[in-house]
Amino acid sequence: MKKLALLMSFLGLLSFSAPCRADDEEIPFGAGPTTNAFPEDAVLRFAIGRPPFIPASEPPPSPATATNFLAIADDGAPAGVPPDTQGAVGPSNVVTMLNSLVRIQDRQGGTNLTTTLSNWWGFSATKPFDPRIVYDPYAGRWIATAAGNQKLSDASLLVAVSQTSDPTGTWYQRKLDADTNHTRWGDFPMVGFNKNWIVVTANMYLTGSSAESDFHFVRLWVFNKTNFYAGGTNAPTILRAETNAPKAFALAPSLVYDDTVTNMHLLTTWNTNALRVYALTGQIGGEQLVANDEFPGSCNEYGLGAERWQRQFSVSGHNKRLIYEGICG
Fold first, then answer.
1. 167 burial type by CB count under 10 A (0-12 exposed, 13-18 middle, 19+ buried)
2. Cβ contacts of 216 within 8 Å, gap of 6 or more
3. Residues 6+ apart with CB under 8 A from 273
4. DSSP class of 255
């Protein structure tokens, strides 16, 4: 069950759309490396053959839905294109975040709150984008993240946790410099958690640019979860993945639905044939990021197509996604 929970968390984290921009112009998602070579000591975990298909004699019927309702529709504002839909479900509420709007509902579809993303965060002189929201069922808390002030020297990372399981109540909010030297900005933050940590990652670019040549590295902020949930202000451990090619891009932390596991795995697309797994280990305050030498492979050996993990471009070419098309091995 632990492996299944980790796999499901990876699949949930790896389905994403392009970031909304903080200004009123839709611009392309920041470019990053997609053709990384394998290290000499790499262990490639490719499939060795097509798995047998065993049809079920009588497949069970799909369960009926208890209810369904609209969360929130994009308002069409230029700064919300694409909307980057994000949402999470708790015991009593559903929280939906777009690049433009935030809505909190009960689980029957009744609306408790609708506001703009900027108003929800409430930081002056900060334009948030790329929101994410998850629910921690073990602590009964909501965790929200966003980036702020895209491409600017005062770019920021926004992180918040609810004080209770009620998302309409009070939140502890943090605003950190994306780069203390103010020479880089953070794009496309992703969030995960385990027993001890809240982990946020972002792609770091040279200020003013989102070109592949100006992508520098992935930065990680590792927060002491217990301290954050108590309203503490302990500084996070700040780490980074490789700074020299080949290097990770859009490194996704896992949502660890096991409150006994102290380590965390992260996942990135290494190239069109494989993924790469990273491990976050160590004691609170002394965390380390380790790149594993194992590379889960694509489904090429199944004859299902050339690129089973790939970057997908929309019609406009401005919307890139990492999509999953099958499970290998």
1. buried
2. 184, 204, 205, 206, 243
3. 297, 298, 300, 307
4. B
pLDDT single digits (tens) 170-198: 999 999 999 999 999 999 999 999 999 99
Report DSSP state, residue 12.
H
Exposure class string for 47-80: b at 16+ Cβ within 10 A, else e: beeeeeeeeeeeeeeeeeeeeeeebbebeeeebb
Share of the chain above pLDDT 70, in %: 76
Q: Residue ranges per domain, the chain?
A: 2-54+67-324
CA 287 from chain centre, in angstroms, equals 20
Q: What is the pTM of this model?
A: 0.81
Helix (H) or strand (E) holding 312: strand 309-313
Phi, psi of 34 (to 5 degrees): -135, 0
For the segment 263-270, the average pLDDT, to the nearest whole number, is 92
* Residues 6 or more apart whose Cβ sits within 8 Å of residue 217: 204, 240, 241, 242, 243, 247, 248
C-alpha dihedral over 147, 150, 151, 154, to 10 degrees?
Answer: -70
Specify the higher pLDDT residue, 56 or 273.
273
Quick one: fold of 2-54+67-324?
Neuraminidase (2.120.10)
Helices (H), the chain: 2-13, 117-121, 225-229
Closest CA to 126 of 65, 59, 174, 168: 174
Q: Is the bond leading into 167 cis (omega within 30 degrees of zero)?
A: no
In the three-class reduction of DSSP (H, G, I as helix; E, B as strand; rest coil), residue 74 is classed as coil
> What integer pLDDT is reported at residue 29 of this predicted model?
61
Token pair listed for 76: 């069409």
**Of 39-43, 53-57, 103-107, 252-256, minimum mean pLDDT range:** 53-57
Tokens of 56: 């079920």
| pLDDT of 315 | 34
What pLDDT band is residue 36 in, cutting at 50, 70 and 90? confident
